[in-house]
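Good morning C.,

I know you're traveling, so I'll keep this short. The sequence:
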Amino acid sequence: MQTLSVNGYDMAYLDVGRGNESSPAVVLVHGTLGDFRTWNAVLGPLSRTHRVISLSLRRFFPEHWDGVGNDYLMAQHVDDVIGFIEKLNVGPVDVIGHSRGGHIGFRVAQARPDLLRKAVLAEPGGDLEPALQPATPPPGPVPLGPRVPLAAEMVRNGDIDGALALFVDGIDGEGAWARWSAVARQQLRDNIHTLPGQVGENRKPFLRSEAESIRTPTLLIGGGDTKGARAVIWRVLAEHIPGARTAVIPGTRHWMFEQAPQEFSNVVLEFLAA
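The tokens, ready to paste straight into the viewer:
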């Protein structure tokens, strides 16, 4: 683990692989309740041909945040990733973001396309503006949005596993948390106190005009078995990001890179090499 001081905060990261002069560095951005360990399953395949840098966002592990402070904001995380890439000083990079990290990757491409060569957005998290939303709600889990404040209150009351079950089941379907391995559960527990921060993070919805403004070559990836809004958002964005490519990882859900790491890596590496 290494750290890089960005905007007054020491961002922790893993730096693996060497790549070559023709392969830009790849920066991995995790989702809610994740950290630089989120990507462990794909570090091997990706680092065979690329320098891979997996970062932890502000207030995530290895920090054990107590929830105090007012800097857990989506805009702050976007600014931090921009500052992190700038401080790497390796020229334009390829960014891969999952869920929250996919939202951040979208915002970086929107604000600072000069920092990116290509972007991979794996089921980017957030909401679509009303004009982009489907006429009828997609089938699947109860929308996650209303669950977050409830889960945050459970965290404040000390019911950590209850909060995590509510959150994970809201993404991957009822009973999903109960099926997770002990290792996967622990990573989310290590970051649980970031969940209340998400209630007031001021995440903006995706606008059609914003998607249409993206000029970074973009690949959007979804899990073949993902249900609900997460199965819709990335497809809608792909319709409006100029030249966007899409890929589905069969038999997987939201955490598709953990459930099928080689298949995910193959799709990503093919896109990065094109």
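Safe travels,
E.
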